[in-house]
Design goal:
Layout: E1 2-3, E2 6-7, E3 12-14, H1 23-31, E4 37-38, E5 42-43, H2 44-48, H3 52-55, E6 66-71, H4 75-87, E7 93-98, H5 103-106, H6 118-131, E8 136-141, H7 151-160, E9 165-169, H8 183-192, E10 197-200, H9 206-216, E11 220-223, H10 232-239, H11 247-268, H12 274-289, H13 296-303, H14 309-318
Parallel strand pairs: 3-11, 4-6, 5-6, 6-7, 7-8, 8-9, 9-10, 10-11
Antiparallel strand pairs: 1-2
Helix pairs in contact: 1-11, 4-6, 11-12, 11-14
The structure holds flavin mononucleotide (FMN).
The site of flavin mononucleotide has 24 residues, from strand 11.
């Protein structure tokens, strides 16, 4: 599977997830076999200003190949952002966000709002392609709502503007994350374009991944929510058999993930209680990492009051899983 000149080893990719797909998440996904990992969406304006907080999102180590996802609505900001990325060779691929449904993002004209302004969408893709040495991809939804399904039009525009691939999250902006992703539309887009089409939405287990590939003919599959706290989904896909590690191994991974994020945050985010914030962030991963443990529900509740690594480790030891 190729995106432009970029060769991917695996067709299961770790989707961009705001608040989740940080450097440590991405390293773990790659180590478990993900073919490509995405940053969470990064502001074109922030990158073009070389804003220190924004630059954190594009730090990269073993998380390669890496797609940096950019959101914004001003072509000149995309141009400056891409110049900056190219100079720091921080991205193997640049993905443009035209699907984010969040009010704060769309009210500024970015994310899914670009599906309502295809002239501007085209301009943004063209300038990004013109500037970027790395392949450029575009991620979008079916349309703004069920009455304005223009994913085929945007797909054709992306292809004409030089995008190396597109990703369709098969829901409308109005749906946000409700209802079911309509995979048949991924198939329609695949039929309509020559460039690779990547599918996204509701792939929860390895069989879903296989079904999406088969039913839609898409070239690769992005996995979002189901991989949070479950990097073995990528490992299973790479191995061609489901992998469900026992509680002890999952708890150990949860601790390792926490330890690595703590170390990373301590290095890069100096200041106010970064450890407390990291432990709090790790709660987002708890549900999956400890799913199916004896007393998992109580354990999850106790995790909510934990403030440091030692307490986390002790709690898991008490539960006899590490
Ligand atoms: C918490 C969360 C954050 C997300 N952040 C982004 C983002 O930054 N950029 C993006 O293009 N999509 C984002 N998405 C959408 C996912 O990449 C994906 O397209 C969607 O969740 C459907 O796939 P899934 O069912 O595998 O999760 C996000 C989704 C969730 C649930």
């Amino acid at each position: 599977m190729k995106i432009g000149a970029l060769d991917l080893k695996n067709k299961a990719l770790a989707a961009p997830l705001a608040g989740i797909s940080d450097l440590v998440y991405r390293e773990i996904a790659i180590a478990h076999g993900a073919g490509l990992v995405y940053t969470e969406m990064v502001s074109a304006a922030g990158l073009s200003r070389q804003d220190r907080k924004t630059l954190r999102y594009i730090q990269t180590r073993k998380d390669r190949p890496l797609a940096v996802q950019i959101f914004g609505h001003k072509p000149e900001e995309f141009a400056r952002a891409v110049d900056f990325l190219a100079e720091h060779s921080a991205a193997d691929c640049i993905d443009i966000n035209m699907g984010c449904p969040v009010r704060k993002v769309v009210s500024g004209g970015s994310g899914a709002a670009l599906m309502q302004n295809l002239t501007l969408a085209r301009e943004i893709i063209e300038i990004t392609v013109a500037k970027s040495p790395a392949p450029v991809t575009v991620k979008f939804r079916l349309g703004w709502d069920s009455k304005s399904l223009n994913f085929l039009e945007l797909g054709r525009i992306a292809e004409q503007a030089g995008a190396a691939a597109v990703t369709l999250h098969a829901r409308t902006r109005q749906q946000a994350y409700t209802g079911r992703a309509d995979w048949s539309k991924i198939g329609e887009l695949k039929q309509a374009l020559r460039i690779p089409v990547l599918g996204s939405g509701d792939v929860k287990i390895r069989q879903d991944y296989l079904d999406m590939l088969e039913q839609t003919g898409c070239d690769a599959v992005l996995i979002g929510r189901a991989a949070i706290g479950n990097p073995w989904l990528f490992a299973g896909i790479a191995a061609g058999a489901d992998i469900t590690p026992p509680p002890r191994q999952r708890a150990a991974m949860y601790l390792e993930h926490t330890r690595r994020l703590l170390a990373y945050e301590a290095e890069f985010v100096k200041g106010n209680d970064s450890a407390g914030k990291t432990i709090a962030k790790m709660r987002k991963f708890a549900a999956r990492y400890i799913n199916g443990f004896p007393g998992a529900r109580e354990l999850r509740q106790e995790l909510n009051s934990i403030r440091d690594y030692a307490a986390l480790k002790k709690l898991l030891q008490v539960c006899d899983v590490v």
